[in-house]
């Protein structure tokens, strides 16, 4: 019996050596990701109440402009009042009522810098509420394109770049839900003016829940009820594998169905500090005819070369809408 066991062990050893010769190792199949290309809608917050305009306050003593007189300008963010964080319009209103008309020290953010600004509220003659004379918003909606979905975790990445408002304030999430968006029109890009996709949220079609906005895009997890089986899949490849020449993007410029469009990679820069790893040029006449090239809302469109996912569209050249930048997919995976 001992000899039989020894012979079996020896045969297994020989078989293993023949299948996997010394010095070699069985390699796992490359991981594939579901490709996006669909347009998604989301709500964002600037992390405070954004001043979009200044107004007057009519009081018993006459007209006053408290915020304007204190140096507040359109585009500023009011992020705190007397040390208490302000994120919404209702929180700002509550801070004004708490003041009882006494001076409030606001923390104001402008172009990434903050300052303390004292403002004396005025009592509105019409309703008795304390106001500082600002028109504000605490959130705004946007659209972008989903780049990839991890089939194992359902984790997704989109946009490929950070999001700022006109005042260059970094935006964060105000609503974690990400909705399917139907593209209903296009403002074509022209030299000197970026175009944009015009879309509507399909409120009953929740794609995912988002949890992260950072310099490389928007990230979260696709809803368990969303069927991924109809999506294309591709292996991810780093920008080191990219070459000058023909490639494709997957993007939606009408309705909800993504289509492939031909582009050319004209430059590869794997070490770019701003993650602008590719310069791309749209060569597909269909896309140029419909959009003029790359437009706002196409950010996140997957870039494919030789059947592999190598990156995503991020920015357009304002002086040439057929050209733009792309981010390497390695800078988006793992977020």
Domain count: the total is 2
> Per CATH, which architecture of the largest domain?
Beta Barrel
Unreliable runs: 1-20
How large, in whole angstroms, is the Cα Rg?
Answer: 27 Å
The pLDDT mean sits at: 87
Work out the strand percent: over 45%
Helix content: 10-25%
According to CATH, the fold-level topology of the largest domain is Thrombin, subunit H
Largest sheet: 6 strands, antiparallel, barrel
Would you list the SSEs in sequence order as H and E? HEEEEEHEEHEEEEEEEEEEEEEEHEEE
Distance between the termini: 57 Å
Question: What strand line-up does the widest sheet have?
Answer: 2-13-14-17-16-15
The computed structural class is mainly beta
The geometry reads as elongated
Query: So how many helices?
Result: 4
- Give the class-level CATH name of the largest domain: Mainly Beta
Key descriptive features of the protein:
Thrombin, subunit H; mainly beta; six-stranded antiparallel sheet; 335 residues; disordered N terminus; elongated; Pdz3 Domain; 12% helix; 4 helices
Task: Describe the structure concisely for a colleague.
The protein has 335 residues and is mainly beta. The protein has helices spanning 2-19, 66-69, 89-99, 285-291, and strands at residues 32-35, 39-45, 49-54, 57-59, 62-64, 77-81, 84-85, 104-110, 113-119, 122-123, 130-131, 134-137, 140-149, 155-158, 172-187, 196-214, 217-222, 233-235, 245-251, 259-268, 278-282, 302-305, 308-317, 320-328.
How would you sum up this structure, described in words?
The protein is mainly β and 335 residues long. The protein has two domains: 32-45 and 140-331, Beta Barrel (Thrombin, subunit H), CATH 2.40.10.120; 49-137, PDZ domain (Pdz3 Domain, Roll). 12% of the residues lie in helices and 46% in strands. It is built from four helices and 24 strands. It has helices at residues 2-19, 66-69, 89-99, 285-291; strands at 32-35, 39-45, 49-54, 57-59, 62-64, 77-81, 84-85, 104-110, 113-119, 122-123, 130-131, 134-137, 140-149, 155-158, 172-187, 196-214, 217-222, 233-235, 245-251, 259-268, 278-282, 302-305, 308-317, 320-328. The protein has a six-stranded antiparallel beta barrel with strand order 2-13-14-17-16-15. Strands 3, 6, 7, 8, 9 and 12 form a six-stranded antiparallel beta sheet that branches. A hairpin with a 6-residue loop joins strand 10 and strand 11 (130-131). The chain is elongated and about 70 Å long. The relative contact order is 0.17. Mean pLDDT is 87; it is low at 1-20.
